[in-house]
Amino acid sequence: MREWTREERYRVLQDPEEIRGLHERIRKSVYRQTYHVQPVTGLSSDPNGFALYDGVYHLFYQWCPWGAVHGLKYWYHVISEDLVHWHNAGVGIKPDADFDNRGVHSGSAITKDGELYFFYTGNHRDENWVRTPYTCAAKLGEDGKPVKLEKPLFGPRPDYTEHQRDPKVFYVPEKESYYIFIGAQTADLKGCVLVYTSKDLFSGWAFAGQLKVPGYESLGGMWECPCIGRIGGTDVLLFSPQYTKLPGRSESTNHNIYMTGRMDFDTLTFTPSAPFKHLDYGFDFYAAQLASGVDDPDKEIIISWIGLPDNHYPTEEEDWEGSMTLPRELRIRDGRLYQTPVPSVYGLIGETVPAGEDLPRACVITAEYDGNDASLDLFAKKDGSGGLKIRYSADAGALSIDRSGMAKRFNESVGEQLDMPLEEPLKKLEIFVDHSSVEIFANDGAAVFTTHLYPAEGEFSLFSSGETSLKVQRIGASVTDDFVV
To answer: Where in the sequence is the domain holding 465, given as residue range(s)?
Structure first.
């Protein structure tokens, strides 16, 4: 694995031509995705500024152009009219001001008076590399490019550590006020959310206090990417706790969880109605963000980074890494959260692959079950060995997913086997495979599992048992891989 100097990681992109050759090289990779958003070059991480505005979905991702390394971050912009066909629109926000001189870090979007605005963390560092995080804003210009406000909205709280970032901005009609949730870390190194409020979107922001979540005062050492939504009258709080191990999650210290409950803005208290659950049980799912502007009381739309901080992936050798998940609809049924691919994804599905043929690099696998023990091995060798092993135990009421049998192994020390618990017997699996990712939806989205996967030569067989029906269908391409910077 290449070692990057600070100067290399934080180099400013002066001219798109500096990375054109890199783009031409990596687009030839067999692991380039065909229906998932991915970086034009280098690294993509957190989704940012996700919004529906004037009939178009805008999505940005954290982008480091030089390679698969976390360094100087930009917001890269992609657009879509249906959440499936995505087009590269170029750099959205650059780290070209003093208050964001070392990175345009994560944030969100909101509409007001027919305009689209973005809120983000400006990562400033002084000559001694001391960080100061600022909460900053920008407006989508007539040319489709965000234009920054000249000054930050506010700076960090001195009574918390420097880890204050990822503003989620939203409006609360009953309070006639705007709010910002910011992921943070207390002085005694515990994760939390800071709450700011204002009657005006661009001035008057005041610190309201720390979000109270009874029972979770000591969960993790940092709560990244906090997000709140409402589905069918139920409030849903999402965040990514860091620096902690959670039961059943092997050695990982980065997670993405959610809680359902009730948010009280008078007391700044989110009262959970049940213990937290993992938003996705997979190896590679982080920094999920809800889309603003959807305005449907019965659903939210969510997207996430397929990847984890501090982890490493095989395509780093090709100087790129990272993808976004499929956009998903979140709904609540019988008090439980369900995730399903947005309906437009199904328009990409094509012909059925005859039984016995090699698995395509991009396909959808649909299997139905009767609730008894079952197994499914994806990308195994022809002799049945290896592959991504999916095992369902009726007694345990869980799926076990193990990727240690693949030729290209990665993040072995973090863990290569995880369980996905099911509250009801297994009846259906819907598995979306792209060139370097697998997303598993169990029982119509009652539980979800996302992982990177990099099949090598000779790893394209499928073996199964226990299903009542099994179908493999090709899926078409829907993202552009044009060089737009």
So the answer is: 343-475
Cα four-point dihedral sign 400, 403, 404, 410 = negative
346 Cβ contact list (under 8 Å, min separation 6): none
**Domain presence at residue 121:** yes
46 a catalytic residue: yes
Confidence of residue 2 (pLDDT cuts 50, 70, 90): confident
Report DSSP state, residue 86.
Answer: B
Report the CATH number at residue 349: 2.60.120.560
d(CA 14, CA 33) in angstroms, rounded, equals 27
Cα separations in angstroms, 423 against 322, 337, 426, 443, 478: 31, 12, 9, 10, 34
| Length of the chain as a residue count | 485
Listing DSSP states for 242-271 in one string gives ES---TTSTT--B--EEEEEEEETTTTEEE
| Residues 307 and 375 both lie in one domain | no
* Beta-strand pair 374-380/461-465: antiparallel
What lies within 8 Å, CB to CB, of 406 at 6+ separation is 379, 386, 387, 388, 453, 454, 455, 456, 459
According to the model, what pLDDT value does residue 1 have?
Answer: 72
- What total of structural domains would you count in the chain? 2
* Element containing residue 338 per DSSP (H, E): strand 336-341
Residue 55 Ramachandran class (φ > 0 left, ψ -120 to 50 alpha, else beta):
left
Is 468 a domain residue? Answer: yes
Residue 199: per-residue pLDDT? 98
- The pLDDT tens digits for 111-140 are 999 999 999 999 999 999 999 999 999 999
End residue of a domain, out of 311, 339, 367: 339
Among 46, 166, 419, 434, the one annotated catalytic: 46
Per-residue model confidence as pLDDT tens digits over 209-266: 999 999 999 999 999 999 999 999 999 999 999 999 999 999 999 999 999 999 999 9
